[in-house]
Amino acid sequence: MKRSSFLKNLGLSGAGLLMAGRTWSVPIHPAVKDAKKLRIGIISDLHHLQFGKPEVTRLKTFMDDVMKVSPDFIIQCGDFCRPKQSEGIMAEWNRFRGPKYHVLGNHDMDVCDKATIMQLWGMEKPYYSFDQGGYHFVVMDRNFLRQEDHTLVDYNNSNWGPLPAPMRSFTDKPQLEWLTQDLAEARYPVIVFMHQPVFLSDFFQEIGNADEILAIFDEANLAAKRAGKNTQVTAVFMGHDHDDRYGERNGVHYFLLNSASYVYTNSGAHYYKDALYAFVTLDPSGWLHIEGRTTTYRDAVPDRVKARFPTSISDHKVMLLAKPRV
Q1: Residue 269: CB partners within 8 Å, gap ≥ 6?
Q2: Which residues make Cβ contacts (< 8 Å) with residue 306, sequence separation at least 6?
Q3: Model confidence, pTM
Q4: Measured between alpha carbons, how far is 63 from 89 in angstroms, rounded to an integer?
């Protein structure tokens, strides 16, 4: 299916690839009157200049569709670009005049510190939240190293690279305290964005203190349900693994977003022919639709890679009505 069909499924027309939808129910807050559909454009793990390869053309494909779809906001879920030689990337990204949000990924600090890449993006804080369209959105920063004395330090100039997996992908205590308070004060159903997964990952040793984050989600949802508030964490979008997965845990729906560019295996980087990304639609009735792209590998790859790693986001359509358990 070409992009014309992809855009047609979004209620548009235009000239790219396959769509796959997942659908589940999240009731919007009853206090939001005259609510309209909220549409989000999302892309993850672009990896501009990773292995020296520019990805302006790949981002342009996403941005061309963004300009046609005209979502309410766009967000990239980490591993986006570097502070130098990214003028073309930022020019493409800034074509969209609506709200634009960033998530820090580990490779965004390959050659700089957090402050430097955040300045390029116009990102005021490494973690933050905002309300829009009857939902509360939370952006997290999972880019901390745990040292031998168990203190945490920021990712900075690839300092995470030489260290073993169990020392990576942590979230600091002040952020966890902020998250707990932020969820307690939320007025609407919550959707979270982060780079490194807390669920669904095969990299079990590289999830840091994911258990603490999941416990915060669990406890916040229990408190919301007991209080009769429609403010539970409902969905979490994650990147990092260059994989395409969905799972449900304690009533929360987790989406692992594939890379826009490639999958990395023991045999190296295997690039996708076309960019992968998705559009998310939140309907006032409570439905969430993910409409994503599917492609193929750009070059010949071993069958074991084809069998294990999908080149999509995603080819499922599911209706879920799961509720958090008390």
Answers
A1: 50, 51, 262, 263
A2: 297
A3: 0.91
A4: 10
Domains in the chain with CATH codes: 3-308 (3.60.21.10)
| pLDDT higher than threshold 80 for residue 25 | no
Helix H segments across the chain? Answer: 3-9, 56-69, 87-93, 114-121, 173-185, 210-226, 303-308
- The number of C-alpha atoms within 13 Å of 208 and in the hemisphere containing its C-beta is 30
CB under 8 Å to 194, separation ≥6 — which residues? 77, 78, 103, 139, 140, 141, 142, 236, 237, 238
266-300 pLDDT, tens digit each: 999 999 999 999 999 888 777 889 999 999 999 99
End-to-end CA distance of the chain: 43
pLDDT tens digits, one per residue of 145-154: 999 999 999 9
Kind of pairing between the strands at 278-282 and 287-292: antiparallel
Give yes or no for a contact between 44 and 30, defined as CB atoms under 8 angstroms apart: no
Report how far Cα 81 is from the mean position of its chain's Cα atoms. 15
Q: What are phi and psi of 195, to 5 degrees?
A: -90, -70
Between the CA of residue 140 and those of 60, 77, 118, 178, 280, what are the distances in Å? 26, 10, 14, 10, 19
Strand order in the sheet with 245-249: 128-132, 135-139, 190-193, 233-238, 252-256, 245-249
Mapped onto helix, strand or coil, the DSSP state of residue 274 is: coil
